[in-house]
Amino acid sequence: MKYVLVSGGVISGVGKGIIASSTGLLLKTTGLTVSSIKIDPYINIDAGTMAPTEHGEVYVTDDGGEMDLDLGNYERYLLTSLTRDHNITTGKVYQNVINKERIGHYLGKTVQVVPHVTDAIQEWIERVARVPVDESNAEPDVCIIELGGTVGDIESAPFIHALSQLQRRAGKGNFVQIHVSYVPVIPPGPGGEQKTKPTQRAMSDVRSAGLNPDLIACRCEQPLDQSTINKIANMCSIEPYQVIAVHNVTTTYHVPLLLEKQALIDTISQMLDLRAPGMKRDPELVAQGKSMWKDWVSPARGQDFLHDTVKIALVGKYTSLHDAYISVGKALEHAAMYCHKKIQIIWVDSSHLEDESASPADYHKAWHSVCTADGILVPGGFGIRGCEGMMKAITWARTQNKPFLGVCLGMQLAVLEYCRNVVGVDDVGSEELHPSAENHAIVYMPEVDKGKLGGTMRLGKHPCIFQEGTEWSRLRALYGTSVSQIEERHRHRYEVNPSYIEKIEKAGLSFIGKDVKGERMEIVEIKDHPWFVGVQFHPEYLSRVLSPSKAFLGFFAAAAGCLPEVVEATNRGQRSIGRKQ
What we know:
This protein is α/β, with parallel strands linked by helices and 581 residues long. It is built from 19 helices and 23 strands.
């Protein structure tokens, strides 16, 4: 097994996940099978109970794992399906060690961080790194490991110690470390000086912790000067080719191109001895890799030359941190790339749509954004804050024939809005949002444990069955009317009250998709509307650059005015409008 460790210094949040994903993509284009592991040093078991405004989106895998958003980058870049075990946290490791201690696994020894916790970390990595991640069901050739946070954090110490041991155990030629550092420009701007001292200190810290990086990926707002590269190489005792410059680009899809231009894949191939006779690739996988790279480069470069812009109003409650909706944003980007359009996401705080007296400026700005957008998207979330504003936006989309997509909570609010304003149900609400309402159109799922939060929702991939007589559906047309079942990832603990279904459908809101028992509502759609769709699942989790989510693609295409063309292209198996396979 070959390992590539991506660590960080100076500050966090400078793109370790994108650099790790891009490195994996480049390795995969050579015909290798690549897996990924994300290490998060926090004590939480997983990210499921974390506030989106603090930690960003909670990403969900097929098996129901709730984890860090970087796992979404890995799946999107590598076209893989990871598991809950591909995300390691301090909480998971300590839970594992404590469970072993309780059953006497350590034979009475005093259980300590070293060696018991550090050994458990290594065992976890070595076990999960070998788990197949694609349809070939083969053991991966290379595993990309991202260590969250920055070296020097007290939480990271056990993981750094474990990784230094893993580096020794793996042996020369089987382990490469990329250390991501930040190069500030003082003062900011084109005339500023690129400062290397933070990177020098970061390298000193990581080496004193027991790791010796092979490559330094330098993040900077602007391209690094050759003199800066030479200085970093000289002061850190490495060669200039071991300094990788990663400056700001127009889209993160350009990062693999930036790394490829600097021959990163050749450097890593040499360090990992990937061209040795024992690493001979399957010719078919090599051909697939080359094809994948070609398909990636074309739309990534093409985005810089598009002119038509489609404005999407994302009406949510966590808009202060865009990472809270990172997969939603990526799914919209994938749809835009397919349609050869630019996308402008307008972030609308839904609470600003509710009350003009609170802040007239915010109120009018928010409504101007909604009214001038080409499409309105209401994503998932929890809690009452901002929900009335979301329903007002949904009313606007429904009555003004604006393309609308509701995801999870967005779908439930669309049902509530319809019950209030069309069906005419008095005092209708949700058990979550309006516990004292007389009528609840949205209720707790019966299997949910109301007393616990972590891992108690309906999670992971579940099937959705298209109902008979729904061949008219605009969403279904994107799959082809012969497709009767799809599978999507879920994360929710509330559902549409089955006792209201008949009344709602008679009023014109159709439930075109249900679970296998026909009891749980999965998709709602209005027939006589350009695009009014709500989905209980999270289609953004399975959206990919080369395979956009059908729900997001249809919504975006309707907003862009090219839905019929997109339906025809998808049914022909084309990866973009005007391009045949």
